[in-house]
Amino acid sequence: MKLRVRRLACYGVTASLLTWHTAYAGDVSFQWGVKIPLRDGVKLNATVYRPAGQNSPAPCIFTLTPYIAQSYHDRGMYFAGHGYSFLTVDVRGRGNSEGVFRPLIQEAHDGFDVVEWLAKQPYCNGKVSMWGGSYAGYDQWATAKERPPHLATIVPVAAPYIGADFPSTNRIFVTYVLQWLTYVSGHAAQDKIFGDSDFWSAAFRKWLTSGAAFKTLDSAVGNPSPIFQEWVSHPDQDAYWDSYNPTSEEYAKLDIPILTITGMYDGDQQGALTHYRNYMSSATPAGRARHLLVIGPWDHAGTRTPKADVGGLTFGPASLVDLPKLHLDWYAWTMQGGKRPDFLKKPVMYYVTGAEAWHAADSLDAITGEMRPYYLASYGSGARDVFNGGSLVPGKADANSAGSDLYTYDPSDTSVTSLEAADTSDAYLTDQRMVYALSGRELIYHTSILDKDTEMSGFPRLSAWLEIDQPDTDFTVSLYEILADGSSVLLSSDVMRARYRRGERNPEPVAVHTPLLYDFNSFTFMSRQVKKGSRLRLVFGPADSSSFERNFNAGGVVADETAKDTRKVVVGLLHDQTHPSIFYIPVAATTGTAH
Domain 369-589: which topology? Predict the structure, then answer.
């Protein structure tokens, strides 16, 4: 199973905006090198884009970015051309701003200061909003939790939740973090280095085959990083990571309209939806009514400018939402008394792939009408082959089913790197060559053929009884639609480190040779009209990839361990009468309305 971390387009300006600014060139007043003083005396650098001939104060928007302010020149021209003063602001220690850059943690206080400074400018009427995705989506939440008095609304797009999906995924660190830290090193842009995917893939494969500790990755790739070392010194979810994100009390005190935007294939979907869920569980009824959500068929970059083609799939014209216009409509509604954006029919808008239509729901949970259980079973040769694997059955397995399936994972076997090197396809949603190549190393289960089209929307879940013979290991699980012609579509996935089976704050060594229940509750949101004649494929196996830190299964501090600590693990997935392992499919509620 190919494991990918898809955040490579987390910066810069997307192509469809590159020529838009020419339409507004005569309508925009431009001022470079404006200095914004912060409370500690540091000055941030901003470029100001204003509607030419503006005669009276009006709402203002800014983006706070580590990716160099000029990257968003086209956005500034667009929004100023539509009547909003727009500022691109270099974060502390990046671009032409003063100070020292400490990723993410610095933006809460700095964002507050920028809001309040901007509100006092003669061209601003005291209503300030923010724009941006990824890092600039996160720093909207960070700023909002400080409750600057003049922050009128936020639109966090593809916003990571620090500690959940960046710089680790479910407490498993990703090698991509070094690629990102190199991009934001120093004051200048490092976009050419960052964007050389061949270089980074080779560097990560070299590190994996060396057997070196994960904590040496920064030196191995040529960029020793104190921030990286600080991050990997906190393997568990603890107070350190909590300090980056709003608390439940801070979410509850927010009293501004919020529009959250993410994508089904957004590498930061988990973060965006964690912010969304945490806010919705803490806010008052009035606050919940002010928080709307859009989930499109988009990757990370597509959450700003959608594309019809993603990962080998092509979506219908309805997927190409004009997101800059949606922002304009949102700002007009929340800051200027305009009408509610036409697109936002209900509090939650989500796109159903296959059906190629937008559906509307009253809440995220209301999207799913039923969690349909499928019991894992296997017969004959077990579940280790694509063509003769195990089964997902609607009821409990009969007495002829084997009681368990086994796979063996040896971290010292790095042959996966040659498979990853050969897998150069961008069709990560449809390419199933890695599943075939890893046959025998993973467990594979199929449903019977579906007898009707079925909309599956929501979050899958796996409740699995597992027995391992080492104190720790990492698991991955992925769900696919297998169409009648044999083609494949990745629907959702999850990862887990065994020690965190009871929560990421409470690591526990595994009691070896003991059946234990593992609940995989962090699958990504999916929405697809699965076709009649298709079947579902569930693939369960080790997190064997240069995309992740290497768990050598020894049970110690993973970032410190090396190949010398390797322990080969035998994993048993049980599905007998006493230990039923069940996969739950989210089937859409019939009340969803299409648009």
Answer: Jelly Rolls (2.60.120)
